[in-house]
Every structure is written in structure tokens, then in C-alpha cells.
Amino acid sequence: MKIDGVPHRSIQAEDGAILILDQTLLPWRVEWLRIANAGAAAQAIRSMQVRGAPLIGAVAAYGLALALRDDPAALEPVAAMLGETRPTAINLRWALGRMLTVLRPLPEATRAARAWAEAGAIAEDDVATCRAIGAHGLPLIEAIAAGKPGRPVNILTHCNTGWIATVDFGTALSVVYQAHDAGIPVHVWVDETRPRNQGALLTAWELGAHGVPHTVIADNAGGHLMQHGEVDIVLVGTDRVTRRGDVANKIGTYLKALAAHDNNVPFWVALPHSTLDWAVADGVSEIPIEDRGEAEVTHTTGLLPDGTPGSIRTAAPGSPARNPGFDVTPARLVTGIITERGRCAASEVGLLGLYPERALAA
After folding, report:
1. What is the spatial distance between Cα 117 and Cα 204, in angstroms, rounded to a whole number?
2. What pTM was computed for the model?
3. Is 322 annotated as ligand-binding?
């Protein structure tokens, strides 16, 4: 995708390092952070300088590759360290598992070069996957547009699912971008996505850079808009999907699904194959939910009156806060799932229809 008209990917490999966008500085400043070792990669993931389930996986893969350049014997401990940085997004574990499967049988002397190549392959896989997700989701927007000629398709999204959450294109926003680029009039309702405001800060910045009409709304406004017929479809991404179709995504997604269900608004979830967790059945009881620090709830960041980025407290002094980072939307509330292989029902039967090889592996 583009920044000021210049194509970029959200991870760039160079000799002995990778460059990532420091997402904690967006949209105020566009700065590229140089990652030259596994420790720096882990810190970037923990601090959310890099975020988005697919992108986290790619960064972790490169972090492991960088570690092996310094110590080819460090495969297992470094993979374990990177795997502990974020508990909910399955893409992290998937990417590290793929790296370990490839690298474990190799002599230590050959691991570093192979690891770098494999990390690059994971990044390229994500680009192709996200492009295909957009193509498979596009007919949903086309069908809605055909039913309201001359009027924009109103899409509600939660959190950030664009190219800065992946290597390129995005997941749910890949559908939006491809519809916009095809000439379909679209308008996106962008949830602010408290407490870190990834929608108001990141999604709005992305959409604006690409020229997609959009409006930032308070997280609790979505149900009201649905009641008044101002939302045609909800499109979200996810950090983990169970084999039965339960969806873990940014906190607040479940409430959007409930409102959509009550108002007969289709609720679609876009994801790459690396987000599917075939080992988990019941998302509510089995998916680990990351609890983050209180300060994300009690404080908010933005531009201070002098024009510099900063943080201010918005909660009453002395009040404690609870900050679960994700919630789980049961499959019964999901209209369908969009992957790089097509669309399906949010069910084990539906997912196996797209990934029949998983039935053989069970």
C-alpha cells in the first residue's frame, strides 16, 4: 500500500536487520524502526510498536532468523522467548512453528541462511494471502452495491485490519481497498477501538492515505447506526479462530456482533490461514485472553495543545482498571468467514470445506 503515494510494505528486510513502522507513533509521525536482533523484535511486539496478528508472526520469524546469525544453537530458547510476547494471536505461534519445523533437522551451520529465507517466504505468503482475501470478499460489497445504486456501501469495522496489521493489503480492509479501487462507492464507519484507539489512529490514517471515505465513531455508536439502517455490513479481522468458527478479536467485537445480529446486519470475519487454530474448539473457554496494563484504560494518548504527542489521565485518580485485550464472538453470531481460499460458514463443516486437508490431519 502507499504512504504519500509511495508503495510500502509494513516490514522491509535489509542486510542484517528488518525495518518496521513504529505504530506507536502513528499517525503523528511516520518512522521506521530498525530491528537487528531477537530481543529488539520481542520488545517491538510486546510494546505494540508492531501489532496485527499476521505482522507479529512475520516479525517473530525474522527475529528468530536474526538470532541464528549470532548463535545457530539458540533456536529453541529464542523461539520460546518470542512465543511468549503475546498470548492471544495464533499467527505468532504458527510462524514460529513453521520456522522450527524447517530448521530443526538442519545442521547448525546452515540454519541462519535458511531461517532468513523462510522468514521472507512467510512474509510473501502473507502478501499473497491478504490479496486473495480481498478478492474473495469483494463480491459481498458488489452485491450490496447492486441493491443500492448510486449510494455508498456503509461498512463498519473494529480495530485495525489494514496493511499495517499485515505485511501488505490487510485482511478485512483488503476487501474495502479492492472495492474502492474497483470504483464501488464505499464509506467506512471506523470504531475508535478503545482503549488504544487503533481505529481512530491507525485505520483512519490508512483509509485517509488511500482516499477511502470514512468517519470515526465512538465504540458504542455502532448499534445506534445499525438500528437506523446506516450500516450495510460489518467487516472485522481476528487474532484466532477455532475449528468451530468462534472468533477472538479486539475487545468490543462481541458487542458489535450482538448488535449486528439484533439488526439483521451481516457480520463477516476476514482472516488468513495462519489465524486458524485447529486444536481449539470452544473459543470462550479455551482461547487465552491477554490482560494488558491499567494505564491503557486510565490514560489516553493524542496531540497535546502544543502539538506534541502525549498522554493524559482520563479516569478518576485512584480508581483501578481492568484491561482485557480481546473478546470471543461465538460462531452463531458470525455470518461467515473470508479466507484466501474463499468464503464459508463459521463452523467446522464450513472451514473443513475450504481446508479439507485438516480433516485428514485430525
Report:
1. 34
2. 0.94
3. no
